[in-house]
Automatic annotation (TrEMBL):
Organismal lineage: Bacteria, Pseudomonadati, Pseudomonadota, Alphaproteobacteria, Rhodospirillales
Name of this protein: Transcriptional regulator, MerR family
UniProt xrefs under Pfam families: MerR_2
Highest taxon of source: Bacteria
UniProt source species: Rhodospirillum rubrum (strain ATCC 11170 / ATH 1.1.1 / DSM 467 / LMG 4362 / NCIMB 8255 / S1)
Length: 112
């Protein structure tokens, strides 16, 4: 589903069109460009809501927002990498998975 700027502003509540456009110009939200202007999807809307909460409910300042967003983006990237790694491990033969489990257990216990 694609949303216009006005749809996003209406959905978030007290958010102004000026703030939304500022966040887009800052690169905090990156909507696709449609024929009628920016076209926001559900992920963009969730990010706008997150920024709104960080600003209004948590009172984060303008300098802190990009830091927080970058950290969240990094976490999401790491989660995707872990899913990929877990899938690759699942594809290993059973004896290799067992060997990997033993090696990881030793590292966790400081043996290795």
């Amino acid at each position: 589903m694609r949303l216009s700027e006005r749809d996003v502003v209406a959905s978030v509540g007290q958010l102004s069109l000026t703030h939304l456009r500022l966040w887009v110009s800052e690169g905090w939200v990156a909507p696709a460009q449609g024929e009628a202007g920016p076209a926001f999807d559900e992920i963009d809307l969730a990010r706008v809501r997150l920024i709104w909460q960080l600003r209004s409910e948590m009172d984060l300042n303008e300098e802190a927002i990009p830091v927080v967003l970058s950290l969240i983006d990094q976490i999401h990237g790491l989660r995707q990498e872990l899913r990929t790694l877990a899938g690759a491990v699942d594809d290993l033969p059973a004896d290799s998975r067992a060997h990997l489990r033993r090696a990881l257990g030793k590292r966790r216990q400081g043996e290795g």
